[in-house]
Amino acid sequence: RDEAKMLGGIGPCGRMLCCSTFLGDFEPVSIKMAKDQNLSLNPSKISGLCGRLMCCLKYENDEYEEAKALMPDIGERIKTPEGAGKVVGLNLLERVVQVNLSEQEQVLEYSWEELEGRQDTVPQLMK
Hints:
Helix content is 31%, strand content 20%. By secondary structure, it is of the alpha+beta class. A hairpin with a 4-residue loop joins strand 3 (96-101) and strand 4 (106-111). The protein is elongated and about 60 Å long.
């Protein structure tokens, strides 16, 4: 990582390497962070130019953890404006929940604000 920081380069995102532009210290990065961000666990896709896990996994991890804590889990049953359904997908960064509605047999997308903002339909475990 120190060598990549000194030499610089362009990362897979197309921008200058984080370590050579703004990251001062190298904090530990774990494979769990890649899992939490729903990334492919293929080493060639999550490794930086230095050959180690990409520093941006740590840099972005706090945002993913915050979003994951706010939103329902996949498989959880929730109430939506169109009725009850089961969460089948999440887009954590955009705060979008994909719900399979039981009555309509279709998958609809809702922003988290749509679901959270309505007091009578606040997503919650249904019993």
